[in-house]
Amino acid sequence: MVKPVEERQREKVVCTNRKAKHDYNLGERYEAGIVLVGTEVKSLRAGRASLVDSYAKITNGEAFLHNCYIAEYDQAHQFNHDPRRVRKLLLNRREIKRLRGKTQIAGLTLIPVSVYFSNGRAKVEIALATGKRKYEKREAEREKEVKRELRERYGS
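-> structure tokens emitted (156 positions)
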């Protein structure tokens, strides 16, 4: 499971998937390590990554991160990595079994929420999510608009 927010504030956040909260109802969250090559780590430390349109999938008892963009490292030349390669996620066997069972239920997917460094190691926060319908997105926009107006009007 994910650490409390107070502990995670000290960590360096590389990128977040802001679109995830808009497109999905996020449920349980998990912290997973990522298997990276050296140039990917250097590029992540420079903050050159994106989680747009990325997702996690469990295949043959292992978790993988698909479509996550980590930019090529400029100083690597010929030894660079593929920016959109499939990366293995490091989770406990028990967590993988639980996630596999829940993703087989219709409508649940694994969405990466953020990538950050914790104790010098790259981590991904993934969440079990259900897709929002169009009308749910409109309702959420209206609620945010009302809250914004109340804040502007009454100052808190």
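The chain is about 30% helix and 35% strand.
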